[in-house]
Write a structure and sequence with these properties.
215 residues; Rossmann fold; 44% helix; methyltransferase
């Protein structure tokens, strides 16, 4: 049964990827070659396709992304948004982002992206304090500050199932993953109790939690 489901998913993904911009496929290959040990930081292809569809359904035009890595999810977002959209992408270093930048340029979407090399909390705290962009973002990927997202906007948290560790007893979880598991459980509990949002946890990739701002 499990093998049948995996095969079905593979067929669906291959069919869908044939319809997707070829630069995304090239982008995945680029990441795997340049950052083999860190490639798990990339958004899985099925999750990228889901986010792309969500952005189109929302008709989002202004988004925020914290943590860019080589830019696979950033490229996915940029391809999904209209030509006059703006993406604020914040990452503490630029080296990995520059690996994917040629593919972003090849796709013709660099004009949509405002890349900020900085600590994300510094940038967000500054923008929140100024109040200039409060409630102006349609969508935020791994956003920590609610005020910047408009009512009805969506925050997306990646990796919220921790490769299944959130449902495993301690003796079944490797030591390096245990600290991360604790943080994920705290995050999931916080989001579940936050009455400012309604949420859905999607078991795609390594877990994707979507939060729609209510007030």
């Amino acid at each position: 049964m499990k093998q049948s489901l995996q095969l079905s998913l593979k067929v669906c993904l291959v069919h869908r990827l044939k319809q997707t911009h070829s630069t995304i496929i090239n982008k995945v290959a680029s990441n795997n070659i340049s950052y083999v040990d860190l490639s798990l930081m990339n958004v899985p292809v099925d999750e990228g396709l889901l986010l792309s569809m969500l952005l189109k359904v929302m008709n989002a035009k202004k988004t925020l992304e914290l943590g860019v890595f080589t830019g696979y999810s950033l490229l996915t977002t940029a391809l999904a948004l209209p030509a006059d959209s703006k993406i604020t992408a914040i990452n503490v270093e630029k080296e990995a982002y520059e690996v994917g930048l040629p593919f972003i340029r090849k796709a013709g979407v660099e004009h949509k992206i405002n890349f900020c090399q900085s600590n994300a909390f510094t940038v967000l705290d500054d923008r929140t304090a100024k109040g200039e962009e409060e409630g102006s973002f349609d969508f935020a990927f791994v956003n920590q500050l609610m005020k910047l997202v408009k009512v009805g906007g969506v925050k997306a948290y990646d990796n919220t199932l921790g490769f299944g560790t959130v449902a495993e007893p301690k003796e079944n979880v490797q030591e390096f993953a245990w600290k991360g598991r604790k943080q994920l459980l705290e995050l999931n509990s916080f989001l579940a109790a936050d009455d400012r949002v309604e949420l859905a946890v999607v078991s795609t990739g390594d877990g994707l939690t979507l939060c729609r701002r209510l007030c």
